[in-house]
Amino acid sequence: MGKSPVIVTFKMSLRDQLDTNKLPNHIAIIMDGNGRWAKQKGLIRVLGHESGTKSVRETVEACAEIGIKHLTLYAFSTENWNRPKLEVQTLMKLLVKSLKKEIKTLQDNEIKLTAIGCLKDLPEKAFNELQYVKEKTKNNERMTLTLALSYGSREELVNVVKELSLKVKNNIISAETIDESIINKHLYTQNLPDVDLLIRTSGEQRISNFLLWQIAYAELYFTDIFWPDFKKEHLVEAIREYQNRERRFGKTSEQLT
Ligand code: FPP
Prior knowledge:
Pfam family, one: Prenyltransf
Binding site for substrate: 33-37, 45, 49, 77-79, 81, 83, 200, 206-208
Keywords: Magnesium, Metal-binding, Transferase
Strand content: 5-15%
Strand order of the largest sheet: 3-4-2-1-5-6
CATH architecture: 3-Layer(aba) Sandwich
Order of helices and strands: EHHEHEHEHHEEHH
Number of helices: 8
EC number: 2.5.1.-
CATH superfamily: Decaprenyl diphosphate synthase-like
Cofactor: Mg(2+)
Structural class: alpha/beta
Helix content: 40-55%
Largest sheet: 6 strands, parallel
Bound molecules: farnesyl diphosphate
């Protein structure tokens, strides 16, 4: 009697599925579609956000595993304060809960947590928890996870203009010396490189006041998947697509080769 064949399946690591020489250094994500995901399932909106936190975890883990250095997540915009009070409260509670729950994972994986936005607008509990996790993880160097909270790009740029005008007025700098690098140094993202890949879930194709300056040369990737359904394989798919794009930064194809 012949032996039955042994079938061996290999599960490729996330890194093995990608060209590790062409990884985006900075990925930013507009996590959209929590509400529609919930509605589709006959659930209330806040359950969509709760489920969305699982995708946050999965994406952070995947980025660390792949070797992405910077991940920025649009968690709450300046405009989101206008949502129903219960939804805003739930989002803030989810933030506190996630920070408390994930601090160990951040430490174990050497991930530094930072935040951008008008953080003083956050409820005290959320603000304090955020400061605590930022402080605890500040020396981690494997990856930076940045949460955009009460963030609006136009507000960020208005602040830069105000700060620079004051510096000119007080003779700290002269108007002629203002250049891109000075502007970069006054943005919330002063310690982050430009975005290489911007992902938006849920089928919407707009930027919604997110990192307008920082995405100048980012590759944009839109997927119909709702954020709570966004899994590691979807991230790999987005990075694969990024790796197939030719980034010319204004040059011609011939100049690149
Ligand atoms: C957009 O979906 C999502 C948000 C406004 C919030 C994103 C928040 C989370 C994923 C959970 C908390 C985050 C952290 C970092 C712990 P939407 O409500 O606009 O969906 P819709 O367009 O379908 O209504």
